[in-house]
Amino acid sequence: MSKAYQKHIIAGIALILLVAVRFFEKHFFDDGLIVFFQHDYLNNDLPDISFAKTLLTDCIRYWLNALLSIAIIYLYFKQTGLLKFLLLIYTATFVVGIILMYIALQNYQAGQYLFLFYSRRFMIQPLLLFLLFPALWYQNTLD
Predict the structure, then answer these.
(1) What CA–CA distance (Å, rounded) separates 10 from 62?
(2) pTM greater than the 0.90 cutoff
(3) Where are the alpha helices (DSSP H) in 24-126?
């Protein structure tokens, strides 16, 4: 089995794991906001949730997605400098994202759900993978 083939298999497994994190979110993550955003959240107040528990589960989910995303990117580009850059980007994004999510949770008002919805979405979805991979691929083709 060639190294390129192995790389694609490992990346495929990592992608399946990213999908599994999303698919089994209700089973693995005790987050009251999952149910809240699936139902009539437009004009309702937040349910009774533990802010610390919600932030902790979203932090765990962020880093799980981040590690899988970094692994996928590293598999394709194999650059130590890039790995350091990715860790810096993911850490800085985490700090900004968790602060924004904390502010959104503390200042939530019924009917004004967009700030909380999108700050949380940014934390729990592997969006940086979808932004960075094509950019790095393009940069690699220019070199």
Answers:
(1) 20
(2) no
(3) 25-28, 32-38, 51-77, 80-106, 114-124
